[in-house]
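Help needed: design a sequence for this.
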C-alpha cells in the first residue's frame, strides 16, 4: 500500500480501518472509523482535502479525488462507493450507495438515503435530493427510494463491508 504525505499533509487513518495492500492514499485524507479501502483504489488528497465519515467502503478500482483549491470531497457515514466508481470534488451525505462504474462530478451534492445507479454520470453541480435513485447518462431521478432499499441495500452493503474487512485484518 502507498500511504504518503503531500506538502506536509498526512492521511489520517484510524487503526480499525482496512486498507488493501495495493491501495493508494495520499495527502489530506481524513477517515472515520471502520472504513475500508479495497484493492487498486486511489484516494488522492493532494489538491484539496478528502474527509470520510464512519463505515465508508471504497471498493476495488475506485478513485476519490478533488479539484485544486476549489472543490474538496466530503463523504458521510455508511457510504458505499462501488467498484470502479469515480467520486470527484463533491459532497456525499450519509447512507448513500454510489453504484459500480458511476461518476459523481465536481460540486454535486448527494443527499442522504440515496442511490446512484451503476454506470450513472452525475454531472457537475447536480443536487440529488434525499431519498432518490438517479440513473443514466447524464443521471436523472428515476424514482423515490423505498425504506426497504435503504435498509436492505444501502445499510446491508455498508455493514457487509465492515464484516468483509475483518477477514483481512487477521
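Sure. Designed sequence:
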Amino acid at each position: 500500500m502507498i500511504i504518503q504525505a503531500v506538502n506536509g499533509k498526512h492521511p489520517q487513518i484510524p487503526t480499525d480501518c482496512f486498507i488493501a495492500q495495493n491501495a493508494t492514499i495520499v495527502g489530506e485524507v481524513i477517515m472515520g472509523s471502520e472504513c475500508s479501502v479495497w484493492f487498486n483504489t486511489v484516494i488522492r488528497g493532494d489538491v484539496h482535502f478528502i474527509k470520510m465519515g464512519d463505515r465508508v467502503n471504497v471498493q476495488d478500482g475506485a478513485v476519490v479525488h478533488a479539484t485544486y483549491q476549489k472543490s474538496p470531497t466530503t463523504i458521510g457515514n455508511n457510504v458505499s462507493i462501488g467498484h470502479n466508481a469515480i467520486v470527484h470534488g463533491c459532497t456525499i451525505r450519509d447512507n448513500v450507495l454510489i453504484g459500480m462504474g458511476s461518476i459523481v462530478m465536481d460540486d454535486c451534492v448527494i443527499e442522504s438515503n440515496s442511490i446512484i445507479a451503476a454506470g450513472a454520470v452525475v454531472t457537475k453541480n447536480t443536487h440529488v435530493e434525499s431519498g432518490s435513485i438517479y440513473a443514466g447518462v447524464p443521471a436523472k431521478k428515476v424514482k423515490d427510494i423505498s425504506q426497504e432499499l435503504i435498509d436492505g441495500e444501502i445499510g446491508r452493503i455498508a455493514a457487509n463491508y465492515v464484516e468483509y474487512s475483518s477477514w483481512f485484518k487477521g
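DSSP finds one helix and 19 strands in the chain.
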